[in-house]
Amino acid sequence: MNSTFARHCAIFLAAAPAAVLAQGTPAGGGALTLYGNFDEYLGWMRSDSGAHVVGLNDGAILRSRLGVRGGENLGNGYGVSYNLEMGLNADNGTAADSGRLFDRQSWVGLVTPVGEFRAGRQNTEVFAIGGAIDYTERTTFGSVVNTFGVPSRYNNDISFKSARWHGFAFAVHAAPAENTATTRSMPLYQAAFDYQAGPWRVGYAGLLARPDRVTATVPDSVKYHNVYLNYRYARGTLYATAVRSNNATNSTNGLTAASILSNVGDRSNAFAGTDANGHRYFNIWQLSADYRVLPQLRVGALYGRIHDTSGADAGARGGNVGAYYDLSRRTTLYGFASRLQNGRNGGFRFLSSAGPSTNLAGADVDGRTLTGFQLGIVHKF
After folding, report:
1. Minimal CA–CA distance to 307: which of 318, 297, 317?
2. Where are the domains of the chain?
3. What's the pTM?
C-alpha cells in the first residue's frame, strides 16, 4: 500500500466515527451511518491432480468492508443520498484495492418521488440481485454462477432506479467512456427489472459493453444476461436462474479463468476487442433451495452447469451443500462443501465473494475436478 493511500485510509478511519457522533441531530435533516462487516473463513481446496491449498481467507459470502452512507431530506419526496465504501482484506489488514480508497462504491444520488438518480462508481444490477440467485447469495465456492464470474461494479456510472409500483421496479445505467487520443471506448449499458408478488419473485439483470473502436479486431460486444425465478415456501426458498454470456477467456490461471471485460472496472470500463474468445458464448443454469431447520439454522444445496455453446467442451458443472447458524442478529457461523468438474477444455476454479488469496491454477485446474470446503464467521456492524 503506498503512503498516500495509507494516509487517506487513516484520515477516513479517524474522522468517520466522529462524523457519526456529530450528525446525531444534524441541521437540514441530514443523516450519516458508518457500517461494515468482517467475513473470514478457513478454506481448503483440492484438485484431482493431487494439488491442494489451505488458507485463512477473507469474504466467503461478504467481502469485508467499511463504508459511510447517508443523505439529506429536501422535502416533498426529494432528497440527496450518497455512499462511500471500501473493501478490506480482514485476514491481513490490507486494502482490497491499493489503487482506490473507495473501491466498492463511490456515488452521489438525487432521490425523487418516482425513483433515484445516481452518479459515480456503483454496484451493477447483476451484483444487486445476488440474493435472488441461490441460497448462498451467489458468492461461495459452490455457486456455479459465481464461478463463471459476475460483473460487479463500474466507474463513471449514471443510473436511474425506479420506485416499486404494484410489485414492479426497474433500473437503467449508462457509463460514459473516458477516451484518450489513442482510444475510442464505448459506453457500458445496464438494464434490469424485478417483480415481486406474494411468494413469487421474477426478474432480469443484464449488461452490454462494446469493444474499443480503435483497437478492436474481434467486434463482439461483451454481454451478460441473467434471468431468475424465486418461490418462497413456509420454511425456505426455491431458486432458479439462467445466464448467457461471452465474458470468459483464458489465462495462466486456467483455460477459462479470466474475463474479457473486467468485472470490477478500470478507468474507462473498456476492453480492447482483440480476444478471439469473444465469439464463444456460455449458457449457465442453476437450481437451488434452502430450508430453515430451526430459527437460527438454515441449510441449503445447489447444482448448476456451465455449457460451452461452441462445442469445445470448455464448460463445467458442480454444486454444493451448506449451512448458516445465527449466533445473533449480527453474527453468523457458516460452512460449505463444494465440488466443480471442468470439461476437457474448461479451466474454471473456485471463487468466493473476495476470491481466495491463494488459489489452484493452471494444470491443477484445466480439465480437473475440484473439491472445496469453507468454514467461517461473518459479523455485521
Report:
1. 317
2. 3-380
3. 0.91
Instruction: Work out the average pLDDT over 71-92.
Output: 96
Task: Name the CATH code of domain 3-380 (choices 3.40.640.10, 2.40.160.10, 3.40.50.2000, 1.10.150.130).
Answer: 2.40.160.10
Residues 207-256 have pLDDT tens digits of: 999 998 888 999 999 999 999 999 999 999 999 999 999 999 999 999 99
Q: Which pLDDT score is estimated for 15?
A: 44
Cα angle value 83/104/176 (rounded, 5°): 85
Kindly indicate the confidence band of residue 268, based on its pLDDT and cuts at 50, 70 and 90: confident
Q: Report angle CA 312, 317, 319 to the nearest 5 degrees.
A: 165
- Indicate the helix (H) or strand (E) that contains 7: helix 3-22
CA-only gyration radius of the chain, Å: 21
20 by DSSP, 3-state: which?
A: helix
Reduced to 3 states (helix: H, G, I; strand: E, B; else coil), residue 17 is helix
Could you give the dihedral angle defined by the CA atoms of residues 116, 121, 125 and 127, in that order, rounded to the nearest 10 degrees?
Answer: -140
Distances in Å between the Cα of 46 and the Cα atoms of 49, 151, 364 are 8, 27, 9
Distance CA 85, CA 104 (A): 5
Tens digits of residue pLDDT in 20-31: 433 433 334 568
Listed in order, strand segments (DSSP E) in the chain are 30-47, 52-58, 65-75, 78-89, 94-95, 105-112, 115-123, 153-162, 168-175, 188-197, 200-209, 222-233, 236-245, 249-251, 254-258, 282-294, 297-308, 316-326, 331-342, 369-380
Length of the chain: 381
pLDDT at 21: 38
- C-alpha 301/C-alpha 182 separation (Å) is 49
Residue with grid cell 420454511, as numbered in its chain: 235
pLDDT score of 337 more than 60 = yes
How far is Cα 283 from Cα 271, in angstroms, rounded to an integer? 22
Pairing outcome for strands 105-112 and 369-380: unpaired
* pLDDT tens digits, one per residue of 340-354: 999 999 999 999 999
Q: How far apart are CA 111 and CA 79, in angstroms?
A: 5
Mean per-residue pLDDT, 263-279: 90
Question: How confident is the model at residue 180, as a pLDDT?
Answer: 74
